[in-house]
Amino acid sequence: MRLPRSLLIGGFLSLLFLGGAALSLFWTPYDIEILSISSRLQTPSAMHWLGTDQLGRDMLSMVMMGTRTSIAVALLAVGIGMGLGVPLGLLAAARRGSLLDEVIMRGNDLIFAFPSLVIAILITAVFGAGAMNAIIAIGIFNVPVFARLTRGSALSFWSRDFILAARVSGKSASRISVEHILPNIANLMIVQGTIQFSLGILAEAALSYIGLGAQPPIASWGRMLADAQTLASIAPHVALVPGMAIVLMVLGLNLMGDGLRDLLDPRIRVTRT
Amino acid sequence: MKYLTNLLLAGSASLFASVAMAQNTNLRVAMQLEPPNLDPTAGAAQAIDSVVYSNIFEGLTRFMSDGSVVPGLAKSWEISGDGLSYTFHLQSGVTFHDGTTMDAEDVKFSLDRARAEDSTNAQKALFSSIAEVSVVDPLTVQITLNAPNGSLLFNLAWGDAVIVAPESIETAATKPIGTGAFMFSNWVQGDRIDIVRNPTYWGTPATLDSASFRFISDPTAAFAAVMAEDVDVFVGFPAPENLPQFEADPRFQVLVGNTEGETILAMNNALPPFDNVLVRQAVAHAIDRQAIIDGAMYGIGTPIGTHFAPHNPDYVDLTALSAYDPEKSRALLAEAGLPDGFTTTLKLPPPSYARRGGEIIAAQLRAVGITAEIENQEWAQWLENTFKGHDFGMTIVSHTEPMDIGIYANPKYYFQYDNPALQALMTTLTSTTDPAARSALLAQAQTMIAEDYVNGYLFELAVPTVARAGINGLWLNQPTAAIDLTAVSWP
């Protein structure tokens, strides 16, 4: 079976950034905590592959450290969303039609009804700017996405014969949810996870662009972009580098999500072969 | 046909001429912040003075761009031998914009109102030495002091000491009525303030017919507005990195002037470990001023070693006391019992000198083991929590009031420096009128706070003004916050 091309391209881009972030845990070309004002705003060269920024820091090292921040924030935020949303969705599906189902789902609708970024701004403005509050803010808005998807897809399984067999054998609703339903909807969750992950990266960049994300000295793509704004006409690479990093990473994740869906969704696979 | 072409040409020529004429008598001035109101005698915001100082309101004396104090509404004065009584002779024929006459009664009203018990004047200390203001005749006012005050004429030049009329002061916040060369015309909140020439001005009338002030705080928007010629003058241009581009462009001129803004890394002297002078000294030696000036201000700004303006003749260069020396800084920390450094907060208000400077300072402090956790704050938050609430370890701010070394004598001021010796020195200074003795006392005070390392002294803020080429008469320096348009003209 051939892998979808979008998966190959998306996977390559994603792995490139993941590898850069992993490498930055041990090594970056330069230490970004050491400023060198005299060598600022250099264009890309053999010494600095992506040039230097307004404080003389190596842009490649900044992008690597920024990738780490983006991935950490987005991963934890998706983790919060999945960790709360999937159990809530499973519970609602298991108790479908009950008052509990109503409460869970209407609560999720309530969160879903707010423009997510505006509420994320509100949360970080009230509780203070910082990476942790950005994670919580983005995480909260991932909860209804996963809760709705889980409930919807779980419901379609509750009417299937093998679930009926499990019920007849005396398994409790929660055991059925975990042992039979969860494995069947896991592939959907993975696909949705990659999509939410790329949205999380965009949200982190947006929050830090307006100064509500990770604070200096932690590198962050959004803040790099904001700092570069007035320099765009003098040293365009300072704005282009973080901008391209965001574009390529999000593009890569979206392509990978598409590819994974093609690969994991049995119906599409049938039509292909 | 030829006749028609001629007519068209003539028509278009006169059209262009009238456009050019209209443009040459109006000036569009941009600044960063919009004033909250327009009464300089009741508000502390600098933006109020920027709009109204000298344009709309005038005082007995006034500042010139070079910082000198010259006669304003008072054309001359005599000082009694004991230095306790000042007799001011007012300009004759001065009227307020509403047509009422400005006389000695208005001066008495303005000064009494500013120094009254329930006064909301932001700089009440300016008037604290005044014992009595009395009207001798309609054009003569006598001010009696309770102790000699060498800086009375300087104090009266402040925007907070302008002369207002009892008839119009109630509405001055939204409709200021003064004696200046321009009259207030219109305020579209959030957009602009318009002023027009005062046709009955007592002094040299303004060249401009009208002017409007616009408010652009975002550096990128500021750059775009100037480049697109949407504004003619930008005072206090927020992005120094863009200045070389304007300098290279024949359409613009760039003026970089002095301000009274001592930009400091303030330390909370009442909060451990900053209550230890060794720790404060360690912080001072960890800071590389030139790197901050280059990195945050793109080279504009003068290094300072104490809380005093370098262009003032009484300035003492004490930068060597806190020279950049990370080795010494680490040794001082060890001596203070903190060999591994410590963790503190660094609260940053919005201006770029603070936000960018803070990032550089945090990196420099990290090099000696001090972890400064950066927290960006909006102005309202900064004023409430940091300035009033004293909830900070360190902060960066520019003190733009002229001659404000006196704040070190106030132990309740936000950095909470409590030194009785300096407080006594300041009291002596206020009652000293002999210029040589004053210089000596000021030098002593500057040295005292520098040797006590009260704060990290960074640089004197420079104010860049970007203007269309050919515009004359703009202030180069900012001895007080003011955009004085009375002498401004197009080529």
Report on the structure:
The complex is a heterodimer of chains A (273) and B (491). Chain A has 273 residues and is mainly α. Helix content of chain A is 73%, strand content 0%. Chain A has 11 helices and no strands. Chain A has helices at 5-24, 59-94, 99-113, 116-127, 131-140, 143-158, 161-168, 173-209, 221-228, 236-264, 266-272. In chain A, helix 2 (59-94) packs antiparallel against helix 3. The two termini of chain B are 37 Å apart. Chain B is globular, with a radius of gyration of 25 Å. Chain B is built from 13 helices and 17 strands. Among the domains of chain B are: 46-171, Dipeptide-binding Protein, domain 1 (Alpha-Beta Complex), CATH 3.90.76.10; 259-462, Roll (Dipeptide-binding Protein, domain 3), CATH 3.10.105. Chain B is of the alpha+beta class and 491 residues long. Chain B has helices at 2-24, 46-52, 104-115, 152-155, 219-227, 243-248, 277-286, 289-297, 326-335, 352-366, 379-388, 420-430, 435-451, and strands spanning 26-31, 61-63, 69-71, 74-79, 85-90, 130-137, 140-145, 182-188, 192-197, 210-215, 233-235, 252-267, 302-303, 343-348, 371-376, 394-399, 456-468. In chain B, helix 7 packs antiparallel against helix 9 (326-335) and helix 8 packs across helix 10. Mean pLDDT of chain B is 90; it is low at 7-22. In chain B, strands 1, 8, 9, 10, 11, 12, 13, 14, 15, 16 and 17 form an 11-stranded mixed beta sheet that branches. Chain B has a 4-stranded antiparallel beta sheet with strand order 4-5-7-6, covered by helices on one side. At the A-B interface, loops of A face helix 5, helix 8, helix 10 and strand 15 of B.
